[in-house]
Amino acid sequence: MINKFFEETNKIIESNLVLFILINLVVIFIFYLFNLSILFSVALALALDILFIIFKIFYIQYQFQVRKKALEVGLIDEVLKISSIPKKDIKLVFSKLINSNNKIISEEFLWAYKKIEKGHSLKDIFSILKKKYNSEILNRFLDLIITSVNTGSVSSQDYKNLAKTFLKSKELINDRKSLLLMQKYTIIFAGGLIVPGILGVIISLVKKLGEDVDLTLIGLNASTSLYSVAYYCSIIYIIEYVIISSIYLSLLEDESKNIIIYLILLLPVSLLIFFVSKFLL
Amino acid sequence: MSVYLQKPFLFKSFFKFLIIYLIAAFILLLIDFTIIIITVIYYVWLFVIIFLVYFSITFFILKIKSQNYNRLILKDLPFFLNNLANDLDRNMSLKIALENKVDNSIIGMKVKKALSLVKKGHSLENALYIVSKDSYDLSRTFNQLIDILSVGSKNKATNLRLLAESITEEQNYLIKKYATKLNLITLIFVIVSAVVPAMFLMFLLVASNFLEITFSSLTVIVVSVVLFPLIDMFLLLIMKSNNP
């Protein structure tokens, strides 16, 4: 995983070398304008570079997921179309896939067909595709084509069954996702709005109460030290809550990398709401 | 029950727990020397709390892992059974059909292990029983599979497809059942994570100012910085471990 991260980082640096140089030049220019120290400008440039790499990696992954989803959606239609071919000739299957309305399917299978024409084995080319997308439907579809070529015994019904089972499985996954989505939004809403909002309002309410009512008149003393302990504890609680929520949200999505995204999004928003709601009363 | 749930009570886990306790006790000792005096009773409480928290978290994590494992199996099962049905439609024997199903998926690996046990002299039924021990759903499916095949009916493939459909429907039912529970769990979570800490803070500040009830700073810190986040975490772990 670390190797993959460094590989991706290397690729990004190589393809965005001009942008990196530009970022560093801008930082040096700022340094020149504001008389900042060299150490600070280098640190700033490095931080900007790292931030750029992180965002770029997430953007690449997002783009890839969109592509994978489009391929999966298109593939179910293609499997159903192929199931209507009476004789399962591999060239006919490929021509159907190459002429697909789905651009990604068309591109990928044209590439695979050209490679096979050049003499590469079907299994090797398909294993490259499997590795590239790591998609369940694609893997099963390619396995079916390999079995069809090897044994010649794959029928139209097999393709229909694959599409049918996958559609049912997809329906279940979608149902589960919509359920988890509800949970996700509740936690984001609670973490970003309700918890900091309520705590901020309560803190300011008690502070106002202490300021407006002269407690010494009724023989009481306002406990300022306890107020500041409660105030700082609330901030720590909000931070802890956001961290726990981010971990949970990434667990829901089975993507541990998303912890950083949720932290980046939720932490400033919740702290901002806490401080804003403090001034509401 | 999956084998995963037997793991938290191993010696290794106790060793890890002791290390965590010693680190926490050392931090407490540092606080004792530098900030406030801490009595021995706090060390006992620390032991009890860390023990409960550590083993509850371990239990939940293992339960979640076990559930993820079962989910992967359940996801593969309909495809496995349908493919098996396709092969049986082509008049293949069960053993050859199973050999065709050996791949990198969990079920594929299980089948591979079962076939290697068959080569070592086990019967196919026994081999399938051994490899499916750690998953209730897989064991149930293999039992039904053996049952369908041993009866010798002509519509073996149809029966397998029906089995695949029943597994899908059962998962569908579980998702719907969880959906009905979810509203209540979410409501409890929002109340516990937002309303209870706010009420506590309100009570704390009002009671200390107006009712002259004294609270030590340590109590406030422990309750709001340690106890509330722990409750939130456990609620989320319960939610996650109940996910279908």
Please provide a written account of the structure.
- The complex is a heterodimer of chains A (281) and B (244).
- Chain A has 281 residues and is an all-alpha fold.
- Chain A has three domains: 2-64, no CATH class; 68-172; 175-278.
- Helix content of chain A is 84%, strand content 0%.
- Chain A contains ten helices and no strands.
- The mean pLDDT of chain A is 79.
- Residues 1-5 of chain B have low confidence and may be disordered.
- Chain B has one domain (3-241).
- Chain B has helices at 11-34, 40-89, 94-100, 106-119, 124-131, 136-151, 156-210, 217-241.
- The longest helix of chain B is centred in the last third of the chain and has 55 residues, at 156-210.
- In chain B, helix 1 (11-34) runs antiparallel to helix 2 (40-89), helix 4 (106-119) packs across helix 5 and helix 7 packs antiparallel against helix 8 (217-241).
